[in-house]
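Ops channel
N.P.: pipeline sanity check, posting one input/output pair.
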């Protein structure tokens, strides 16, 4: 199943965005846009994105068409078919941002999911991200191989790991972990599918797929199952090697 768009994060500081419209909807968009560092203007030759928050269909159509004719990407409030991009609901744990999008079909549903995530995500998880960022040089020294480094971090931030992001940590948590961190040993996990529906995967199986370095699978494994794996996990249609390679290998059939 194709996704409804490509999630990206624009660097907005110092850039301009055109906002067309007045009233509550426009005011709400203005607050969101200014919060990201954008300068909200009525028009700007250098602007590359615009938001149209106009209720009248004729006025909205005129504004949308004029902006798109200039090559500007448009978000049109309550008009998903006219949107080049959508504005998701956001969970802000800077520098961590979680965006929830329904492709413009239900802002209320996106907001409800955001509220659930707000309740379970620790307020200090942003400091954990900053700690990992500050430790880049130390991580490269401890784990010169990129694969070893990624696997070590993955094991640390996994559920119940020493840096589990769903658990509050002291500010020096990354430094403490790195003092004793070691390469992750290779292991193999086996998944035997009970149906072609990815929702029938157990939580443990779904977690394995999300963490796997490589997946050995048979030809009849549905693409919907393989899509649950990390995008950079190596897919191999064939049997397992005699000796496990570093990291997590999945035997999937």
């Amino acid at each position: 199943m194709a996704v409804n768009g490509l999630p990206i994060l624009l660097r907005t500081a110092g850039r301009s965005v055109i906002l067309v419209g007045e009233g509550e909807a426009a005011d709400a968009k203005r607050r969101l846009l200014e919060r990201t560092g954008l300068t909200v203007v009525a028009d700007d030759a250098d602007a590359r994105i615009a938001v149209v928050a106009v209720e009248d269909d004729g006025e909205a159509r005129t504004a949308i068409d004029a902006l798109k004719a200039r090559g500007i990407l448009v978000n049109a409030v309550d008009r998903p078919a006219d949107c080049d991009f959508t504005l998701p609901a956001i969970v802000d744990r800077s520098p961590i941002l979680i965006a929830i999008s329904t492709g413009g079909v239900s802002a209320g549903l996106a907001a409800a999911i955001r509220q659930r995530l707000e309740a379970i995500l620790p307020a200090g998880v942003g400091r954990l991200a900053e700690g990992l960022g500050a430790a880049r040089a130390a991580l490269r020294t401890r784990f010169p191989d990129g694969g070893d480094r990624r696997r070590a971090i993955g094991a640390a931030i996994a559920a119940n790991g020493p840096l589990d992001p769903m658990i509050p940590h002291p500010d020096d948590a990354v430094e403490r972990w790195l003092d004793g961190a070691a390469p992750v040993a290779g292991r193999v996990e086996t998944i035997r599918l009970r149906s072609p529906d990815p929702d029938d995967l157990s939580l443990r199986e779904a977690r394995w797929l999300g963490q796997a370095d490589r997946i050995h699978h048979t030809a009849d494994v549905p693409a919907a199952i393989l899509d649950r794996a990390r995008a950079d996990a190596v897919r191999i249609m064939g049997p397992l090697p005699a000796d496990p390679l570093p990291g997590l290998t999945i035997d999937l059939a």
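N.P.: looks fine end to end. The CA atoms of residues 57 and 79 lie 10 Å apart.
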